[in-house]
Amino acid sequence: MNLPHNIATLLYCFNAQDEVLLMERAREPNLGLWSPPGGKLVSEFGESPYECACREAAEELALNITPGDLHLLGIISEKGDEGQAHWLMFLFEVRKRVLHVPARHREGRFAFFNRDAIDQLKIPRTDREYIWPLVWKYRGGYFAAHCRSGLHGQDQWLIEESRLPGD
Asked: 24, 128, 132, 165: which could form a disulfide with 141 (CB 3.0–4.6 Å)?
């Protein structure tokens, strides 16, 4: 498929209670759904995924971090998402603990959730079925996954590389 290729970062931030920070999106994509903060890489400026993650943390969370504060948890390539675009997503765990819920942002509002509470939230289908299980399994490690999006949620996922925590 000849579609645009979007490159984005997602930030997995935790507080002292090990709850994860999520944003209820006020805009597309995923309007009205909860997801990790992050955003699209500014490729015309040659921005790296790490630079993008740091910029998004500052813009959305008022959190000043450096690339050294990030752990690359995973890379997901998604072919033909809803027939609209291909995606390359860099998932970063932020090593610095977030102490407070960030102020509401034009992109949405924030809240912390424990692992069990995420199952009760309105989240994107692929997050629920594939991405969150990978995040929990490989947190502290690393994974690379590829998704071929199909019609009516008939996605094909392939783990291309993985390293469990401690490996």
From this structure: 165
